[in-house]
Specification:
By secondary structure, the chain is an alpha+beta fold. A 4-stranded antiparallel β-sheet has the order 2-3-1-4, with helices on both faces. Strand 2 and strand 3 form a beta hairpin. Helix 1 runs antiparallel to helix 2. The protein is globular and about 50 Å long. It starts with 6 loop residues before the first strand and ends in an 18-residue tail after the last helix.
Amino acid sequence: MNTFSKIYIKIIFAVMGRQSLIGQKWEEELFRYITGVVQNKGQKMLAINGMPDHIHFLIGMKPSCCLSDLVREVKKASNAFVNEKKFTAAKFEWQKAFGAFSYSHSALDDVIAYIHNQKEHHRRRTFREEYIGFLEKFEVDYRKEYLFEWIEKEP
């Protein structure tokens, strides 16, 4: 094949209703499972981490990959995984929406560090502030009514 590429995408999505359902005791198992789904789809997981109500992960993506299909498969498979393992008393489900942001190769170290330090970042910023910050930084046109369901109130 004569296609050469380096495509890096950070993906963010949240638990349905923004419930804090991802437990510290099993989050690593969830992250390993999601990594396996990504790898089984032929993509490369570079970093994954999150909070009890949302996750971030960075992938090296092949140009043949359809990002929406990949995210849909990750959500579907990980929903089933969490529910089959009975990690939560409530039914676990991801929100339908997701954010995807592309990065250059030179930014990878910073993006990976950011993902690994999620818990520290969220001591200072809410998920809403973080996510809207990404939308504004990447100059994404958005309408508030189509964003994630928020727990915290609008400022």
